[in-house]
Amino acid sequence: MRHTLRFALLSVLFLALCGCSDFVDTTQPDSSLGLGGPVADAQTVGQTFVARHGGLNGISILAKVDGPPGDGVAILHLRSDPTQDQDIVQSSLPLAGISNPGFYLFSFPPIPETHGKRYYFVIQAQGLPEGSSLQVGQGPVQAYDDGAMYRSDQPNGKQLAFRLHYDRSNLLLQVILGAVSDIGTMMIALALFVLPGWALLVYLLPPERLNWKTTLGLAGSLSLCVYPLIMLLARVAGAQPGAATAWGPVLAAGIALIARYRPAPRALWPSAKVALQQWACSAGFLPNLAFGGVALAVIAVRLFVIRGYEIPLWGDSVQHAFIGQLMVDHGGLFDSWLPYTPFQTLTVHFGFHSDVAAWHWLVGGDISRNTLVVGQIVNALAIFALAPLATRLLKSEWAGVGALLVAGLLSPMPMEYVNWGRYSQLAGQAVLPGAAWLTWELAEAKSLRRAWQVTLLTGIALAGMFLSYYRMPHYYAAFVVAWLLACGLPRWRLDWKPWSRWAVQLTQSGVVMLALVAFWLAHIAGGNLATSIGTGIIRGSTLEQVQREYEGFRSVELYVPLALQALTVAGMAWGIVRRRSEAVAMGAWLVGLVGLIATRLIRLPGSNHMVSFAIMISLYMPVGLLGGYFLDVMFSALTQRARWGAAAIIAALLVAGGWGAMARSAVIDHAYRIVAPADLAAIEWIRANTPPEALFLVDGFLIYNDQSIVGSDAGWWIPLLAGRQNTMPPQYALLNEKPYTPEYNQAIVDLVLQLRQVGVTSPEGRQLLCQYGITHVYVGQGQGQIALPPPEPMLPIAELEASPHFSLLYRQDKVGVFAFNTQECQ
User: Over 70: is that where the pLDDT of 261 sits?
Assistant: First the structure.
């Protein structure tokens, strides 16, 4: 073991020392529009871009000299922005060496901290003979989404063909510095999202029921419940706790844990040293080391992928950031959405947003970035939460390693959630396995005192789970039914005593949950969600509607690849062969989750909100447990039956974990990115150069049979990021909350509907802008096409530029800010 680890470390060191050549990022080599854009003495071409690594030290341009080069020189000026004249660095090449088409490198000294930053380079040619020019490769505007080609410092609707070069040593240094920063993030996450739950566990559960893997998973689940419950209880008491919501639980948990584990000062180091030596020599050393390594990889890759990103992706993130900011503004739960959008109720689930607000109160910073960071932390906690159930599946030292590997690194879910911003469902699913474990523990609790403690913890978990995502009780019910059929029925048979005892205890947990959320249930009783649930009970669903919903499972391979499906079947089959009712229960849970859609036929309350997509992206839980169970069995067998077993396991974990980490590190898809770096620059300009009372028309499209609207570029974020009003409220508010003006919802939906029919620059379109009091128009880097499939833009930038009724105020990359001539409204 010791020699294997030494060899791995030496290999990493050797690779680092050998990495002396440049790293080339071929993000935009597209030259499908051919060579053009001639550069002569009086002409320039340029390109904005975002550096995705640290240590930028060169830019390659596809180019060719047309005609005799003479003594001409091509000069590249690197600047921070198209509006700036000051160079960060210059580089030049003799044109005599650019005779044939190819990529030619303009090199310069490495710039260390370039990761995630936006730059602009401009190329000019000096000393060319008359009639000669420098031709550059050009691609379509869609070829690169982090910038645009410029002609004489004006965007021209194309992209240059270029490559970015990075100094490997600087790149590696920035990666290391980023890793150090991520360690700080992990420590804060440990304090905020593990310590409170840990303190609850050590005081309410006997120590023999907890190993460190189970504690990590359950502590994360319970900690995520703490902050929404504090918010809710404070609202009942008429208080707004603010920063105390974050600092209070962390400090209280820290003090409680110190009191619990306080050793004699002189015995601290000797006892820790002995414990460490005993652990290193124990049979559990390798499996525990493997579990820790996979867990570290799970959280590290989730933090790594969001380096350089300030704004979370896609539409759900808009409302998450808005609600989180409003909680910070109000010091807790709120009613009014002002000053961002004109709504006056909050009835949607708020668990994840409470966690974001708590993080913000602890570390400060921007709420949008905090939403992204907390979303990724919750993503990791959702994986760790599977460890306690994995321990139930396989009562050995290897339990949980496979589950973390399968769900955390090999499965595309839940990692893919970062693209969708689907963080509320993720928060609920981070609590659900903890609630399931506690329910299982409740069935095995024979001591009345222990049953009371587990009952309390189960009630807390159920309450937090519900406040995080309203659909979670259905997912939990599927687990309970599966456990009853696979474990309870074979174990208790017709003995009514354990059945009645467990039923009473589970009912008591439900009473605890209801006591905690009763105020909120009363609060949301008259809201749109309650109305929707009532409608589903009354109308139900036809068999044809249910069948159509199940047709969505044809795409299940996107969320559970075939290899993981095979691993799941293998785990289930092995459990049946070994007569492990626990494995059968997990298989039954998977079937139960899929079967939730069918409950529409019996009009189960809330079943009309069970959709195939939400179910498919949650299957990583039973898939991770069953696939992980099979791997854990294989790992355990190897260590027991072969001397080379440990080496084989290490090799398998390194290969599978490395492949999974690489695959997951490429998860970010810019097709889901609403706010690009060019948008952030434009939003800063808006904040500094437009009046506070400005109302922006932004792009969007109709959904839900033309009953609602969503944004389709960065204009959706203007109220939160720029402090200006727009015509596109967050979807949660529009669908669920009460506006200050009863006609508001229909009015803004009609605005999008009518503008898409008549066009924004038409007389009818301009009349609509007058009617709604619109003063400005924003076209984002996505140009109204951030959706799948991309819609037709409602605000074509070329039409706005050509119209005399709109004044161009700002134009960079694909972004445009226009003022509407409101004089004609008079």
Answer: yes
What are phi and psi for residue 470, nearest 5 degrees? -65, -20
User: What are phi and psi for residue 444, nearest 5 degrees?
Assistant: -105, 0
For residues 666 and 662, give the distance between their C-alpha atoms in angstroms, rounded to a whole number.
7
Report d(CA 448, CA 460) in Å as an integer: 19
Q: Is 93 helix (H, G, I), strand (E, B) or coil?
A: strand
H/E stretch holding 640 = helix 620-641
Question: Pick from 76, 39, 64, 58: which is nearest to 151 by CA?
Answer: 39
Cα(576)–Cα(351) distance, integer angstroms: 38
Residue 688 CA, chain-centre distance (Å), reads 30
Alpha helix positions (H), 690-805: 718-722, 731-736, 744-758, 763-772, 797-802
Q: Over the Cα atoms of the chain, what is R_g?
A: 29
Q: Could you tell me where the DSSP H helices lie in 642-710?
A: 645-665, 677-689
Which amino acid appears at position 331 of this protein? G
**What DSSP designation does 99 have?**
-
Question: 386-393 and 620-641 are packed helices; what angle lies between their axes, rounded to 10 degrees?
Answer: 50
Q: Which of 127, 135, 131 is nearest to 35 (CA)?
A: 135
Burial 172-181 (b: 16+ CB within 10 A, else e): bbbbeebeee
What single string gives the DSSP state of each residue in 234-268? HHHTT---TTHHHHHHHHHHHHHHHHHHPPPHHHH
Contact 646, 637 (CB under 8 A): no
Instruction: Tell me the pairing of strands 73-79 and 89-94.
Output: antiparallel
443 Cβ contact list (under 8 Å, min separation 6): 483, 487, 488, 498, 502
CA dihedral defined by 136, 139, 140, 146, rounded to 10 degrees? Answer: -100
Lowest mean pLDDT among 70-74, 197-201, 713-717, 816-820: 70-74
How many residues are listed for the chain in this entry?
A: 826
Q: Alpha-carbon distance 363 to 673, whole Å? A: 25
Q: Is the pTM higher than 0.85? A: yes
pLDDT at 210 over 90: no
How many Cβ atoms sit within 10 Å of the Cβ of residue 129? Answer: 13
| Nearest C-alpha neighbor of 432 from the set 196, 201, 214, 217 | 217
Helices then strands, counting H and E runs in the chain, come out as 31, 20
- Say how far apart CA 545 and CA 550 lie, in whole Å: 9
Q: Show the tokens assigned to 465.
A: 């789970």
Q: What is the mean pLDDT of the chain?
A: 90
DSSP conformation class of 143: G
Amino acid, res. 96: A
| Token output for 560 | 């559970």
